[in-house]
Design a protein that fits this description.
alpha/beta, Glutaredoxin, two-stranded antiparallel sheet, 8 helices, about 30% helix, globular
Length: about 180
Amino acid sequence: MLIYHFMFGPDYEGGCPSCSAIADGFNGSVVHLANHDVTLYAVSRAPLAKLQAYKERMGWSFPWASASDSDFNYDFHVTHTNDEWQSGAVEYNFRTVDLRLQETDENPFVAAITASVGTDWPTYRKEGPGLSAFALEDGVIYHTYSAYERGVDAIWGMYPWLDRAPLGRNETGMWWRRHDEYDA
């Protein structure tokens, strides 16, 4: 089983635009993975009704579960507690980091990404993207793999294409949108 830890916290107004762009590629992969004995799920902490409404808006059919009443995302260090956040020592991407912004930091990317989900930086960034893999053998579930941050770029369908385009990623700020938010 493959789990994509999709950044959609309970206080978000919508799913993370980056996670949404990544998830745009899931529908086509689910059937192929299933026929290779692999199940792909997205998991987020938003309530299931909120996830289902967003899934319908985006036109997705892949399985998506809510971990709102569990420790699942905390166990895999993609969600951080208030205490961890306030201490400045969260475990993410196999290291201890301080994800808080300095009060003097003004970052247009941070402003754009937090506005896109209708929240502030701490609420947004207490969630993080990740990918976890599990195997079931003789009734025992094994955690076999995890990737975070740029480690999930490999499943972000447009990046392998852009990496081969004449100008590469050619990124400036938050250039991507949810697929229903681009100008026609």
